[in-house]
Amino acid sequence: MGGGQKLCDKGLENLRYGIVEKAIDDYFCLLAGFIAPTADCNLGELERFFLSDWFSMLCTLDSDFIMDNLKRKAKKMILKYTVSKQKGSSRYYVHEVDCKEPIPGTLGTKKQALHRAAKLNDLDYKDYMRVRRRDGVSCDKD
């Protein structure tokens, strides 16, 4: 019975952390505009959850700290640099969103250019690609 209890405890722990992790991810995605709010998943509902006794029973994290950090991170989800294809070439370059002038040293494969643009935007690659999708940005074919 001792081994089964450990598995049960581990399963409950994973469930608790999964609930909190999903709430954090949803809150960030809503703040950053990656998902649209619904009746069951919106900022008000999530903020009430983070400030609830239930949240405190699930984990020992500071809800105000979490919400403040996610708000700061979401504000950074702005596309300042993007990628375009070089005319008459199979190479790509990074440039500022409102300016087609290539940034020196950024010409390369599409993947290299996207990674450089993410770095210039001060975003990790995954978040950079999410911002591009949210904003409907694709690599222009000049």
Count of separate DSSP helical elements = 6
Largest sheet: number of strands, sense, barrel closure: 3 strands, mixed
Q: Name the strands of the widest sheet in spatial order.
A: 2-1-3
- Provide the structure class: mainly alpha
Parts with pLDDT < 50 across at least 5 consecutive residues: none
Mean pLDDT figure:
93
Overall geometry comes to elongated
The helix content is 55-70%
Strand content: 5-15%
Radius of gyration: 21 Å
Query: Order of SSEs, N→C?
Result: HHHHEEHHE
Tally of domains = 2
Terminal CA distance: 67 Å
Number of strands: 3
Polypeptide structure, described:
The structure is a single chain. By secondary structure, this protein is mainly alpha-helical. It folds into two domains: 74 residues, no CATH class; 61 residues, no CATH class. The chain is 56% helix and 8% strand. The protein is built from six helices and three strands; from the N terminus they run ααααββααβ. A three-stranded mixed sheet has the order 2-1-3, covered by helices on one side. Helix 1 crosses helix 2 and helix 5 packs across helix 6. The chain is elongated, with a radius of gyration of 21 Å.
